[in-house]
């Protein structure tokens, strides 16, 4: 198993999150980093756990889906817990801590799920205020381990929180990282700063300085090629590289003809205005359209588009060959996922197929440590404009996965026009900030309508707007009806080929954000 090596993080004080498979593990790390403390995630069964524990300043044990009462459930070496580092166990983490240190546990009769009221114990170190906390557990600590005292209770859990302040060991049965927990941020803050003594050295400015140095060290006098898409990740990666290696960077942007209306031109213009690097812009839309001719299966579309990118690179080898390094905007969630055993994929999100031999250069991945929100902050600190850093995520295969059925220039036009109107109406209504992604999709069914005195038999457009923190889960945005109605009227009137407009209300799960 590949693990991310904490030793490579330079001088940062590190909070280690030991992952027991909990659904909120990433969120724990993000909440910690929001408080300017670097957090690294390591799986509980990593061979490297002891070494990483040794280098960390403090540790959080995550939640997890198993029961500590089951045989063979995930565990760690008891000596780690008593090695003197401050530890906070969350949910499964608290239960494991109790089990390893001599406490008693039992399954609860009725699973405690959802919001509960927490009453703090007097003098508790991390929990000062009562309030609603988010619970989801099937076991509970019944008797405290020696040296511990209760730090809070709910109606059902007598030990909703426990602590041994002398050894700086803390446990909470609820999830302080979830936004439904009142005062959760404060609990983490007290653990990090009052108990573990972090100084808060993880800031965008420090990151930039260190990343520039690390790039310079890796690249030396070499030259770097960086593919950009207009998205925030590749833009920020390019800006960091430009700062680190200046004229030895060349960027390449391939327009596959599947961007939103006017976007390809805008990406090139914004890049040139803001990033001091040589940009090769290639219009390959016709080539992509012919590769997609007759293809309706979503995965086949992705495969062909990936393959076509490679063909474009090959055709432009003269401009792209001879570089020593290839830059990629890989983010921390991808790094963790590639180190985990259970990376089930619902859709292939790899945008580019196997690279030709001459493109197999050494990789430079300056964003490997960052979550998306941190990439945005770094972009802001680098002075990139809002249109670049606040840009919605856009799938690599572009509108091809928003056009159900065959992708043709005419169908791309329909989606682009409808999408443009939707964006405009959302902008006017001041709703853009609530939205993680919004778009129009074209369906491949037809329905009957009437326009003037004519019967029509045309396609429906689906509007989708979701709120999300990380694209793993998402909810439909509650857009006022008048905004939707105005959008629908405009689309049907202004976009030929459309006679009906629908709004997608489904969350993810069970749906996905994209339609394909
Ligand atoms: P889903 O549809 O799986 O999307 O809920 C989650 C996030 O991933 C984006 N997405 C893709 N991004 N290549 C990409 O680079 C793809 O093939 C792809 N498919 C979906 C989607 O826009 C959302 O942000």
What count of domains describes the coordinates? 3
CATH homologous superfamily heading of the largest domain: Class I glutamine amidotransferase (GATase) domain
What is the overall number of helices?
16
Q: Which overall shape is indicated by the principal axes computed on the Cα atoms?
A: globular
List cofactors, ions and other ligands: xanthosine-5'-monophosphate
Q: Class of the largest domain, according to the CATH hierarchy?
A: Alpha Beta
Kindly report how far apart the N and C termini lie. Answer: 31 Å
Outline the low-pLDDT stretches. Answer: 1-7, 341-345
The amount of helix comes to: 25-40%
Strand arrangement, major sheet: 2-1-3-4-9-8-7-5-6
Number of strand elements: 19
Protein structure class: alpha/beta
The CATH topology label of the largest domain is: Rossmann fold
Return the CATH architecture of the largest domain.
3-Layer(aba) Sandwich
The major pleated sheet works out as: 9 strands, mixed
Mean pLDDT: 92
What would you report as the Rg, rounded to the nearest angstrom?
Answer: 26 Å
- Per DSSP, what share of the residues sits in E-state strands of 2 or more residues? 15-25%
Summarize the entry for a quick read.
With 516 residues, this protein is α/β, with parallel strands linked by helices. The protein has 16 helices and 19 strands. Helix 7 (232-245) crosses helix 13.
């Amino acid at each position: 198993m590949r693990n991310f090596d904490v030793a490579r993080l330079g001088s940062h004080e590190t909070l280690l999150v030991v992952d027991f498979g909990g659904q909120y593990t990433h969120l724990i790390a993000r909440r910690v980093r929001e408080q300017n403390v670097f957090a690294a995630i390591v799986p509980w069964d990593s061979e490297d756990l002891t070494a990483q524990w040794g280098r960390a300043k403090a540790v959080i044990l995550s939640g997890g889906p198993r029961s500590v009462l089951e045989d063979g459930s995930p565990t760690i070496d008891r000596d780690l817990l008593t090695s003197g580092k401050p530890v906070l166990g969350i949910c499964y983490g608290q239960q494991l801590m109790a089990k390893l240190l001599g406490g008693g546990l039992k399954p609860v009769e009725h699973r405690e799920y959802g919001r509960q009221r927490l009453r703090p114990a007097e003098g508790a170190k991390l929990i000062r205020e009562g309030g609603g906390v988010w619970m989801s557990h099937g076991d509970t600590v019944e008797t405290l381990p020696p040296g511990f005292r209760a730090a809070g209770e709910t109606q059902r859990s007598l030990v909703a929180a426990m602590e041994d302040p002398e050894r700086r060991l803390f446990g909470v049965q609820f999830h302080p990282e979830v936004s439904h927990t009142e005062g959760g941020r404060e609990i983490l803050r007290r653990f990090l700063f009052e108990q573990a003594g972090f100084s808060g050295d993880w800031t965008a400015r420090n990151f930039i300085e260190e990343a520039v140095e690390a790039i310079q060290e890796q690249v030396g006098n070499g030259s770097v090629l960086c593919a950009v898409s207009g998205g925030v990740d590749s833009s920020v990666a390019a800006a960091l590289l430009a700062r680190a290696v200046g004229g030895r960077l060349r960027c390449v942007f391939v327009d596959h003809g599947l961007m939103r209306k006017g976007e390809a031109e805008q990406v090139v213009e914004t890049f040139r205005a803001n990033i001091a690097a040589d940009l090769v812009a290639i219009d390959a839309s016709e080539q992509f359209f012919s590769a997609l001719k007759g293809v309706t299966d979503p995965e086949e579309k992705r495969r062909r588009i990936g393959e076509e990118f490679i063909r474009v690179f090959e055709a432009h080898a003269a401009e792209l060959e001879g570089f020593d390094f290839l830059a990629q905007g890989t983010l921390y969630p991808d790094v963790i996922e590639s180190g985990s055993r259970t990376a089930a994929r619902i859709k292939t999100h790899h945008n580019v197929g196997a690279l030709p031999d001459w493109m197999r250069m050494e990789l430079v991945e300056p964003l490997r440590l960052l979550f998306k929100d941190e990439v945005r902050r770094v972009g802001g600190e680098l002075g990139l404009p809002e249109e670049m850093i606040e840009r919605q995520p856009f799938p690599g295969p572009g509108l091809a996965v928003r056009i159900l059925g065959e992708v043709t220039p005419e169908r791309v036009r329909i989606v682009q026009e409808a999408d443009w109107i939707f964006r405009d109406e959302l902008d006017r209504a001041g709703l853009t900030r609530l939205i993680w992604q919004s778009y129009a999709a074209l369906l491949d069914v037809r329905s009957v309508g009437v326009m003037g005195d004519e019967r029509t038999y045309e396609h429906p457009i689906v509007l989708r707007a979701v709120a999300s923190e990380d694209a793993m889960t998402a909810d439909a945005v509650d857009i006022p009806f008048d905004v939707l109605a105005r959008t629908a009227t405009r689309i049907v009137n202004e976009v030929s080929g459309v006679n009906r407009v629908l709004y997608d209300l489904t969350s993810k799960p069970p749906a996905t954000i994209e339609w394909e």
